[in-house]
Amino acid sequence: MLKRIVISMLIGIVVGVAISEFSFIFLRETARPPQEVVLTIPVGTAEKVARGEQPPSIPLDMIFVVGDTLVMVNEDNVDHKLGQLWIPANSSARLELNEEQNMAFECSFQAGNYFGLDVRQALTLGTRIYGSLYAGLPLGILIAVYSFVIPAKKNENAPA
């Protein structure tokens, strides 16, 4: 009986780890400590935006972790704006991202005048272990319960 419970729990935890790690593959960009992220506005961006073109070196949306700092470096000849940040020509500005949130900023360096920032909690080893156990332990208990519904294999050599 104890052997069934232990095997069931091990199967549940292995399946929980597999499911969690598969899910964490999609969260790869947050599996890092906070850092300084530099985004450069290249020369000629204002002209491209005026023509309705998207500057190729600037993404439409970005994903950050809590604690990141976004540093906007404006190499263009024109002043630019990102939400509350005013970035004069040939200078830079910093934005501290200290809480988990989704933001949509008005900006002057995107063709659509919109820049999305998604700030998420960093994916840590503790989060990964918690996710694996959160899925694996209940599954192991469920497998153990169902294992008692299935009758044990009878030993044909045992005396009657």
Q: Summarize the amount of helix as a percent range.
A: 25-40%
Q: Indicate the proportion of strand residues.
A: 25-35%
Report Rg: 26 Å
CATH superfamily descriptor of the largest domain: Cupredoxins -  blue copper proteins
Strand order of the largest sheet: 1-3-6
Low-confidence spans:
none
Q: Give the biggest beta sheet.
A: 3 strands, mixed
Which architecture of the largest domain does the CATH hierarchy give at level 2?
Answer: Sandwich
CATH topology of the largest domain: Immunoglobulin-like
**Gap between N and C termini:** 21 Å
Number of domains: 2
CATH uppermost class of the largest domain: Mainly Beta
- Overall mean pLDDT score? 85
Category by helix and strand content: alpha/beta
N-to-C series of helices and strands: HEHEEEEEEEH
What is the number of strand segments?
8
Number of DSSP helices? 3
Task: Describe the overall structure.
There is one protein chain. The chain starts with a helix and ends in an 11-residue tail after the last helix. With 160 residues, it is an alpha/beta fold. It has two domains: 2-26 and 124-149; 32-120, Immunoglobulin-like, CATH 2.60.40.420. Strands 1-3-6 form a three-stranded mixed sheet, with no helix packed on it. A three-stranded mixed sheet has the order 2-8-7, with no helix packed on it. It has a two-stranded antiparallel sheet with strand order 4-5. The model has no long low-confidence stretch (mean pLDDT 85). A hairpin with a 2-residue loop joins strand 4 (80-82) and strand 5. It has three helices and eight strands, in the order αβαβββββββα. Helix 1 (2-25) packs across helix 3 (125-149).
